[in-house]
Amino acid sequence: MNVLFLSPNYPPEMRDFTRGLAEVGARVVGVGDTPAQGLVPMVKEALSGYIQCPLTDKDRVLAEVRRSGVHFDRIECLWEPFVELAAWLREQLGVPGMRLATAVSFRDKEIMKQKVEAAGLRVPYHFRARTEEEVKRAIEKIGFPAILKPIAGAGSADTFRVNDGAELDAALAKTRHVSEVSVEEFIDGEEFTFDTICIQGKPAYMNVAQYHPRPLIARSNEWISPIVVTLRDLNDPKLAAGIKLGLEVLDAMGMGDGFTHMEWYRKPNGEVVFGEIGGRSAGGHLVDQMNYTSDTDLFREWARAVCWHDFRGRSERLYNCAIIFKRAIGEGRITRIEGLEGYKARYGRHMVDEQLLRPGTPRRSWLQTLVSDGFVVVRHPDHAATMQMARAATTDITLYAGG
Ligand SMILES: Nc1ncnc2c1ncn2[C@@H]1O[C@H](COP(=O)(O)OP(=O)(O)O)[C@@H](O)[C@H]1O
Ligand SMILES: [Mg+2]
Predict the structure, then answer these.
(1) Nearest atom in ligand 1 to 186's CA
(2) pLDDT tens digit string along 191-213?
(3) 191 lines ligand 1 (CB under 6 A)
(4) Is residue 275 within 6 Å of ligand 1 at its C-beta?
(5) Is position 205 within any domain?
(6) Proximal ligand: closest to the CA of 149
(7) Are residues 213 and 352 in the same domain?
(8) By CB atoms within 10 Å of each CB, which of 169, 200, 330, 367 scores lowest?
């Protein structure tokens, strides 16, 4: 089992997927931008070979992979910008797995919604627009409030809710650098994920998490400490329609093997609406949270699914697991953390991870990375208890910057 794995060292969670591939017995060759000496020890140990090559130069990647002389049985990528490259390489090299057209539909938000809609599933009323003129025409049909977002965006970047003509003009001015947008009906409600590891289109593993608040609100207000919580009880009747939608979306998309990360909305009247789906794992440490939810290792089990069409992870859900992202007050370097010791004294035994930036470290951009200035992860079998601890982390822990 020879596996070519794209970008094995970056983003950081790819290191664990690389390890997982080696653990299930694959011979793993990495290809990525990182110089070979910059690979972390875990990645170096897991790789049988490494090709350093800019992933943005697809012809060069193909030439280098051909030059390696290795016959690959799988080509995998879990980092959104290069999921299409992996599919293109499979086609060029005759390797089984997701084809380019399918990968494009997991990335282009209009093709995606057309596929889901064609299966009779509920998507927001939507249009593709390339010019201001087209955006305005779409808005005339959709009405306010509406959403403007890049056709292949991520992390809520360049995404705007517009409530009236003035807000629309402001959003148009801010999205001039975006060549194509999706214009959508604004769906009010709660927002969830539906994550799977699929084997031949069927989930061998499933997860649902809830965002508090919705990602666009979290990304528009720096003072918020966003919470994402995996839900222990997938049999909760409130989730049934969303999970059913998720399963139908997998069929509509023509999913094969591997991770998916979908988002869906639940309106106050209970109606569920498709948001988006990626043919990759979720970022922002959600895979870690899924592992904490079931005390399992989905990095390794994803690898087993794509290599051997087998899954041996634990699916039993033991906990709700919440991550709380913190954003410091002030600019520059972190100067102090307040409230962490008291928080640990109260909830330490439910805390499974804590990676808040320490004094002296420069702040991260909260707009560019959801992880912001670090995070706390707590878990508990009871959902209300989990949320109470998560809320306490938003109010009782404060990071200051200013150095
Ligand atoms: N039609 C919509 N109605 C309401 N909120 C939306 C809509 N589309 C996007 N959003 C908000 O914007 C966020 C980012 O949009 P999304 O389509 O998930 O793109 P990204 O790839 O950036 O995550 C969503 O998580 C949601 O909070
Ligand atoms: Mg999203």
Answers:
(1) 3
(2) 999 999 999 999 999 999 999 99
(3) yes
(4) yes
(5) yes
(6) 1
(7) yes
(8) 200
